[in-house]
Amino acid sequence: MQDIITIDGPSASGKTSVAQRVAQHLGIPYISSGLLYRAVALLCLLENVSAEEIEQHLGKHRLELKPTPGQNLVFLDGQEVSEALHSLEVDQIVSAVAARPAIRQYVNEVLRQIPPPFVVDGRDMGSTVFPQARYKFYLTASPEVRAKRRVPEREASYETVLAEILRRDQADQQQSAPAQDALILDTSNLDLDGVVQAVLAHITPAPGGPITK
Ligand code: DC
Q1: Residue 142: which residues within 8 A CB-CB, separation 6 or more?
Q2: Sheet strands (E) in 41-171
Q3: 131, 179 Cβ separation under 8 angstroms
Q4: Which atom of ligand 1 is nearest to the CA of 99?
Q5: CB 11 less than 6 A from any atom of ligand 1
Q6: Best probe residue, ligand 1, of 172, 173, 176 (max atoms within 8 Å of C-beta)
Q7: pLDDT tens profile 148-204
Q8: Domain assignment of residue 69, given as a range
């Protein structure tokens, strides 16, 4: 078992904010795996090519994720692109990018090179990428609650954001099943602090391990 905490869940379930806070509380880095899929999606937009085409040329590009205390910095061929990863344009194509097995393999290799301890959020962190993680959580919330949470982060109406969330739930379904040993937390009626407390309540100092409260 490794000192890794996985926090998976559907889009806008709050997993990144929760992962950030939990990591901060424990004094360890957090990693947002979705950023790597977003970076590949951005590459498609920049090069004006499909997910299928980019898959063939991934070896030519260098993708790096650097966790810093406040945020994750993403570099594409040495250039920092973090700011450009949360547009509606990227939202719209990222599921198609993430559906391609060779792209998933590429992203997973980048993730597995990061040395523990860390908190990581995504869809399949507990089930596929880090099955050896010490703690696994899966956050859920209704699509309406998730849309309401995401509207302030997008230049789009509630209806547009909700439609996008429903479409992405469908498109991401395959890689979004919770790990069998994950603790499932419904966050619909909890605020951010409530979810963070619920997660931290399950994390106990490991004998001899560095994850401490
Ligand atoms: O968590 P997010 O919204 O930033 O993720 C962006 C997209 O990447 C999302 O549509 C699903 C996909 N994704 C994935 O398939 N597997 C992951 N581990 C993380 C994200």
Answers
A1: 188
A2: 63-67, 72-76, 79-80, 118-122, 133-140
A3: yes
A4: 15
A5: yes
A6: 172
A7: 988 888 888 999 999 999 988 888 887 888 999 999 999 999 999 999 999 999 998
A8: 4-200
Is residue 187 assigned to a domain? yes
Please give the model's pTM, rounded to 2 decimal places: 0.88
Nearest CA to 153 among 46, 21, 17?
17
The domain total for the chain is 1
Encoded tokens for 38:
């977003």
Q: Does residue 151 fall inside a structural domain?
A: yes
Q: What are phi and psi of 176, to 5 degrees?
A: -105, 10
Decide whether any atom of ligand 1 lies within 6 Å of the 141 Cβ.
no
Within a domain: residue 206?
no
Nearest Cα neighbor of 147 from 139, 138, 156 is: 156
> Is residue 95 classed as helix, strand or coil in its secondary structure?
helix
91: Cβ below 6 Å to ligand 1?
A: no
Phi, psi of 191, rounded to the nearest 5 degrees:
-90, 180
**How many angstroms does the Cα of residue 97 sit away from the middle of ligand 1?**
10
How many CB atoms are closer than 10 A to CB 150?
Answer: 20
Tokens of 60: 């030519």
Token look-up 């509207």 returns 151
Residues forming beta bridges with residue 120, ordered by sequence position? 6, 31
Which atom of ligand 1 has the smallest separation from the CA of 37?
Answer: 8
Query: Per the domain annotation, does 208 fall within a domain?
Result: no
